[in-house]
Amino acid sequence: MDRPRRAKIFEPDLPDHITGEELDKATLRELSTLQEANATYVARHLIASGLALEEDPELAWKHARAAAHHAGRIAVVREAAGIAAYHAGHYAEALAELRAATRISGDYSTLPIMADCERGLGRPQKAIDLAGSTHAKKLEINEQIELRIVTAGARRDLGEIDAAIVTLTCAQLREDSEEWSARIRYAYADLLELAGREEEALTWFEKAALSDPEDFTDAKERVEKLKK
Q1: What's the total number of domains in the chain?
Q2: Spatial CB neighbours of 171, under 8 Å, sequence gap ≥ 6
Q3: What tens digit of pLDDT does each residue of 52-90 get?
Q4: Structural domain span for residue 5
Q5: 3-state SS class at 176
Q6: Which among 88, 55, 85, 92 is positioned nearest to 67, based on CA atoms?
Q7: Could you give the count of Cα atoms lying within 13 Å of 50 in the half-sphere of its Cβ?
């Protein structure tokens, strides 16, 4: 009775303590278009996926894929599957799921992830093309910053280090305490060091470290290394 219909793909077992009610209200509203038993089943897989995402990305992807298998026309489910596939390194599957979510919802907020998937598939020019699309101009500032970082990485993949540096040369580098400050500063410093501009790289690694009190990056270690 737990599964509304016979599975056509592998679907991992669901822990008994996950009820599906843990989902946010907006997602639950989207799932309400499904039959009740199916909505509950999909919700449980989404929660299980989210819980496993950091420690076991592969398991998270399997849960999210199971959810998408039973709710393929719901954008938030396809997006969750795409993000889980991305974290598990399944870039082709991630791209397919995120494209599907975008077609359904018209929301392009995952464009930075889609561009990074293109990089993961060895197609940096396609990542750059996505960054130049009209949809990219409509992203929120945090999404624009992530896309800049991905685009700079794509330029780096192509050996265009100077162009990558130019991509990250923007007013937002001066921001000290935004959620993306450490990431863009670190990426900028890393490129400067790669270009042989070590004094400038040291300055920006120091700034990245100041913006990263939780040490999500190894900016402090990079500072120490450059000072030796």
Answers
A1: 1
A2: none
A3: 999 999 999 999 999 999 999 999 999 999 999 999 999
A4: 1-106
A5: coil
A6: 85
A7: 14
